[in-house]
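Structure tokens please, single chain.
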Amino acid sequence: MTADVLWGLLLSMRPKQWTKNALVFMALVFSVDLYWQPGDFSSAFSHIGRSALAFVIFCAASGALYIVNDVIDLEQDRRHPTKRSRPLASGLVPISLGLGVACVALAAAVGASFALYWGFGLVLIGYVALTLSYSLYLKHLLILDVFAVAAGFVLRAAAGAVVIDVPISPWLYICTALGALFISIIKRRQELILLDEVAGQHRRTLEHYTPELLDQMAAVITPSTIVAYGLYTFSAEHLPDNHAMMLTVPFVLYGLFRYLYLANTRNEGGSPEEVLLRDRPLLADIILWFLAVVVILYCFRD
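Here you go.
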């Protein structure tokens, strides 16, 4: 096996998209005031370690599923202006090798998940089943395709809560789901614009979407996301009584507006992972939001 093939295998697992798996750390961040006691470093390191292992396991599982998805979409990807250069679509990585690596990585991920905690293993199984269903069928169903993508994000966040054994807040579900729907809708719009008349040949649902429809969907989801997060900051349990969490709302507003700007003026909404890694203002906004949440939860605890 040559170095080029090994590199192609790694690229087929789409390491840039592993940033999505950082959602498993959400429960860790928002439980800082509940379970972290000053000076109790053993508890803190235990939570961090379990969350980090969960992240690695999800990266292995999602990477394997990306390979499977590329094999399923092989012919469509070969007609796509950018996806045709993917290792499997271009022929750099043999299909049999790719599927073999995917099976090994997926089996290892599932085994490790149950070894870490059986509840986490069940959530991972649900994520695998959902992703395979999406690759084979759900992505061809109008509207349900973006709902399926959002469900995958919610399962990541839920897995992070399960693995450290903290209660799963309903706000975690709704804010994650709405944010994921926002990103998915913008991505569909960018695919439609990029592929134009041949969009339906690449993704069947793009035959039925229109830029106007997707703009209307985004116009519903964007304020819904803002309102849901705003309600969370002053009505959720276990937050500081002085409502200091509301100070993080501007970061969420800026992030949504920045993403809309990048999608509508620079046509960069088609690859969320690229946007996150490349756009410094957006990345800085996410980091500042994270730091603000930790400081507020830890410093304003009862």
